[in-house]
Design goal:
The protein is mostly helical. It folds into two domains: about 45 residues; about 120 residues, no CATH class. About 75% of the residues lie in helices and about 0% in strands. It has seven helices and no strands. The protein is globular, with a radius of gyration of 20 Å. The protein starts with a helix and ends with a helix. One of its GO terms (biological process) is phosphoenolpyruvate-dependent sugar phosphotransferase system. It holds the Pfam family EII-GUT.
């Protein structure tokens, strides 16, 4: 009898944890994303959609900028998960690779721009604690993460683009 009661209590605790997570999203990330989307839309309207799309189209025209500059700016200025909205400036055939490059940059950017992805901060801080315990500077680690991240997102973007092109055929 006690086992059944314990299982029932554990079962309901699982749903309580899910509900708590849902409430944290409703009061935290959802309003943040809505406000960011509104702000970005307002800035685009103020500048002019034609100008913004023209500039973005130019930036995404070249492979190197499409998988470096654009994802970096998206992640730094809009943070996770709003950064993916920059994908609307990318041609359809490049969207999977753009997404891959952008999502891959969310961890390397954390050392210099912790606001970009708070969920990854615990990983970086774990590594940073080890580096600090060794007496090494954290600035060097953050800068190296950032630059290695740029190389990685370029490689991932190019490789994903090639894979997508082959699979589409």
């Amino acid at each position: 009898m006690e086992i059944i009661a314990a299982l029932a209590n554990s079962f309901i605790e699982l749903f309580k944890a899910g509900a708590a997570t849902f409430v944290s999203w409703v009061t935290g990330i959802i309003p943040l994303v809505i406000v960011l989307m509104t702000a970005v839309s307002a800035v685009i309207k103020l500048i002019g959609e034609d100008k913004v799309y023209s500039m973005a189209k130019t930036a995404t025209k070249y492979t190197i900028t499409r998988y470096t500059i654009v994802p970096i700016l998206a992640v730094i200025f809009l943070a996770n998960p709003m950064c993916y909205s920059f994908g609307r400036f990318v041609e359809e055939k490049y969207k999977p690779a753009f997404y891959d490059a952008t999502v891959s940059f969310l961890h390397p950017v954390t050392g210099l721009f912790p606001h970009a992805n708070g969920g990854e901060l615990f990983v970086y801080m774990g590594i940073a604690t080890g580096i600090s315990n060794l007496g090494l500077p954290l600035g060097d680690l953050a800068v190296r993460y950032f630059f290695v991240g740029i190389v990685v997102i370029l490689i991932r973007g190019v490789v994903t683009e090639k894979i997508y092109t082959m699979m589409k055929k």
